[in-house]
Design a protein that fits this description.
GO biological process, one term: glutathione metabolic process
Enzyme class: transferase
Protein name: Glutathione S-transferase kappa
Family: Belongs to the GST superfamily. Kappa family.
Distance between the termini: 32 Å
Strand order of the largest sheet: 2-1-3-4
Catalytic activity: RX + glutathione = an S-substituted glutathione + a halide anion + H(+)
Radius of gyration: 17 Å
CATH topology: Glutaredoxin
Length: 223
């Protein structure tokens, strides 16, 4: 049985709620000393297809709600969002690049790259479906040589299969969108699924963890 609780966050850069989910998870986890947290990239369109779901933007009422809701979420959390003019873009190259980086670099470096790609898409309005933009985005973190090398590796069979495996794993866990969190309590192998960037109050209650609310409190939480 695991001695520590664990949280696996399945995300895709194309998802604005994944952007908030990852940003908030990274904000809160600094207080969660006994929890293992992993960000795991997926292909969101594959999850939607596998679960027979639709993206909110494809349903008129959901799409209209989403645009308003994202603005409210930005105001509540203090996390900026500039809705991408390239939405939706094909983020398979981005997800594969993050698979390579996760396999090769430290957790801290990988997480910096995750946040950087989210910010490139959802703050800087860059089309992260383009390889050149992906390379340029992670170059300040990895250096130009590594960024180019890792981008080339995204065509490797092993990397393609890992993204497929991550996506299928999320579907098998019950995912129908992103972000999806699969959580195990310390001492138990039973997985518990939580969906959405607005589940942190419930997640922290479930795991008995501190939670300061959506707004950033500089005394106890950091971006």
């Amino acid at each position: 049985m695991p001695a520590r609780s664990s949280i696996v966050c399945y995300y895709d850069v194309v998802s604005p709620y994944s952007y908030y989910g990852v940003k908030l998870l990274n904000r809160y986890k600094t207080q969660w000393k006994d929890v293992d947290v992993e960000l795991r990239p997926i292909f969101l369109a594959g999850v939607l297809s596998g679960s027979k779901n639709q993206a909110p933007a494809n349903v008129a009422a959901k799409g209209a709600y989403m645009f308003k809701d994202l603005g409210r979420l930005s105001a509540a959390t203090g996390i900026p969002l500039n809705f991408s003019s390239n939405f939706p873009t094909m983020t398979v190259p981005a997800s594969r690049l993050l698979v390579v980086i996760q396999k090769t670099e430290s957790v801290a470096t990988y997480e910096q790259c995750v946040e950087k790609l989210f910010e490139a898409y959802w703050v800087e309005d860059k089309d992260v479906g383009q390889q050149e933009i992906l390379i340029n985005a992670v170059t300040p973190i990895l250096g130009a040589d590594k960024a180019t090398k890792y981008m080339q590796q995204t065509s490797d069979k092993e990397i393609k299969q890992q993204l497929i495996d991550n996506t299928n794993e999320a579907i098998e866990a019950g995912a129908f969108g992103a972000p999806t969190f699969v959580i195990k309590k310390a001492g138990s192998d039973e997985p518990h699924l939580f969906f959405g960037s607005d589940r942190f109050e419930i997640i922290t209650s479930f795991l008995g963890l501190p939670y300061d609310g959506l707004a950033l409190k500089t005394s106890s939480a950091r971006l």
